[in-house]
Amino acid sequence: MAIVAQTTRRSRISRATLAWIVGLLFFFPIFWMVLTSFKTDADAVKPEFLIWFTPTLENYANMTENYDYWRFATNSVITSVFATVFALAVGIPCAYAMAFRPSRATKDVLMWMLSTKMLPAAAVLYPMTFLTKGLGLYDTHFIVIMVLMLINLPIVVWMLFTYFKEIPKEIIEAGQMDGVNTFGEIREILIPLAWGGIASTALLCFIFSWNEAYWTVRLTTTEAATLSKLIEGNRAPEGLFFGRLSAVSAAAVGPIVVLGWFCQKQLVQGLTFGAVK
Amino acid sequence: MSDRRLPRLLQSPAVILLLIWMIVPLGMTLYFSFIRYVLNNLRRPEWTTPSFSNWRGWGNYDFVLGVKGFWPAAFDLAIPLALIAVAVIAGGAALKAYLDAGPRDLVRRARAHLGLGHVIAYFMLALLPMIGFVFFFGDVSFGTGKFWLAMKNSLFIVGSILFLTVTLGILIAVLINRVFPGRGIVRVMLISPFFVMPAVNAVLWINMILDPVLGLQGLAVAGINGVIDSLQTAPVVGSFFSLWPDLEPISFRATQTSAYAVIIMVTWQWTPFAVLILMTSLQSEDQQQKEAAILDGAGAWNQFRFLTLPHLARPIAIVVMIQAIFHLSLYAEIEIVSRGNGNKNLPYLIGEFANNNIGAASATGIYAVILANIVAIFLLRMIGKTLMD
Fold first, then answer.
1. Which of A109, A161, A268, B69 has minimal CB crowding within 10 Å?
2. What residues have CB less than 8 Å from B186, skipping those under 6 apart?
3. The overall pTM is greater than 0.80
4. B139 lies in a domain?
5. ipTM score here?
6. From B13, B193, B199, residue closest to A231, measured CB to CB
């Protein structure tokens, strides 16, 4: 028995070590980017594995000068927040009706909504540019918000539907007895009860909107351009300015990575549409 | 208000918005794909505006494929599709036979997870196009070759990413499934890459990690060369090591390697997703069954093969299909790595056509829709099954 205990202990230690190594390896590129963002441009391109150096905040200070970071960041915040708010405003009533007043068509409607998410964006690239330019919406916040909202709407409806389904119907029906109308029901009973689910849906929708890189790049030039556009616009020629580039990149992904840590679990539900438990 | 009208009214904003979003642009793509529509053409100015009088029929589809007429085109499409189908069926059958060959009681337990065979066939469905294309079509190009090259790159990139993320995902999920000190921190570190914006991912990897001179790759190669050099001048062993060559760093922006750069960076980003999903699924594994198997004397490998792997079949299939849909429309990474040099996929080709020849861009778009739908139908069916329980 003693031998068995010893070997299992040894294997447990080696497993834990391996797991730590894997975790550190996956995190390393992000760590390296953050580290580089504190180096001067000269230090950042030194051909050596530089870990010890005098850190500087210069790159973050220069961000506005060289990249106009704040305009892009403001656009990202505006478009992601409004896309999330609108998606919830449209999605909550829809999911409410599907969860508490289901009809025979509910399942088909949900499946059809998901199928819109699976259309390749590139297929409608030109019609979208044609339409947005024709309607004078090209490079406006409005079109970016609308597109981000429509991209995320299926996920939002689906996640809300699965959360709402968990709420006992009796509670909602009790509200009807008391003579509350539908919007009162949603506002005073449903939203407080499903608050956690709604919050995590919103968080996930915000993250996906922030990271969206196809439409935000293709439907904007300057006015409504988001951080994706900023990064994509500054690729190759910046080779000698790793410090600055890292600072902008770190500032672009930092908040989202931290938010992401809080909604790991919802990610599974949101992206697999509840098909994995 | 009546019982039926209210729910419909509540659903209508979402439904109408999505209906417009889907039908209007797609309808326009369909229309443009059947007419001559070129943005800049001085010789034929009438083609620069969309109109039914510029009807071209299947011409754009033929032009994109590089062959003329329905039958040659159908034949060209049918050969690769038939080969893929054969590979999928053979691969699925082989895998099922492999899983069925084992101690009888364990096989019976594995069978308890329904539909294993066809779930694995789904997996192969996404995986094998890559193998099929690389082996059968290596450097063959049809007609103009543009479309087939883009199709091949699409499938090669998606297939490779799927293979790597699923394999790594299973290994890592099993590794961190047991409790160990600092598991929470490791999980947070592992999941982080998924939340990095694609553009940042590409800029970070191509400039700071894969760059042959300034990136970590260059530093690592220089470091290894330094070690080799010092071994070569060492007193006793020097003569042995003198035959070792110096390593050359790889340039990942080149035509031959740019697809691998994309595969590496997307794998880094999406492996966490596979880990997260497979880990979630592992937590619902039947522990009693596992204990019974251990009492029966099943070793660690047999437990994995007959209990864990069948349990993971369904989540694996879902990971594969969701990733296939996402990666078939990869764009930012390809643009940033090499602007389509050597790794041009279907979305990128559409983007290039859309600079001038809208008809061709639209026809390519319709092909892309068909390709994505093949995967989406299977995925929707699987999701639909879990919908109402």
1. B69
2. A19, A20, A22, A23, B176
3. yes
4. yes
5. 0.87
6. B199
Q: Is residue B16 part of a domain?
A: no
Is the Cβ pair B192, A119 closer than 8 Å?
no
In a domain? residue B244? no
Question: Which of the residues B61, B175, B208, B348 would you substitute to probe the A interface, choosing the one with the greatest number of A C-beta atoms within 10 Å?
Answer: B208
The Cα–Cα gap between B291 and B67 comes to 61
Q: How many Cβ atoms are within 10 Å of A104's Cβ, its own excluded?
A: 6
Mind listing the pLDDT tens digit for each residue in A93-138? 999 998 888 888 888 888 888 888 888 888 888 888 888 989 998 9
Residues in B 347-376 with any Cβ partner in A closer than 8 A: 347, 350-351, 354, 358, 361-362, 365-366, 368-369, 371-373, 375-376
The reply to whether B233 falls in a domain is: no
- Please give the residue range of the domain that contains residue B167: 58-180+260-387
Confidence of residue B147 (pLDDT cuts 50, 70, 90): confident
CA distance A22 to chain B (A): 8
Count of domains for chain B: 1
Provide the pLDDT for residue A149: 95
Please tell me what DSSP assigns to residue B354.
Answer: T
- C-alpha to C-alpha distance for A206 and A263, rounded to whole angstroms: 11
How far apart (Å, rounded) are the C-alpha atoms in residues A204 and A202?
Answer: 5
The whole-angstrom distance between B66's CA and the closest CA on chain A is: 19
pLDDT tens digits for A39-73? 887 777 776 777 777 788 888 888 877 778 889 99
Is the per-residue pLDDT at B250 higher than 90?
A: no
C-beta atoms of A47 and B277 within 8 A? no
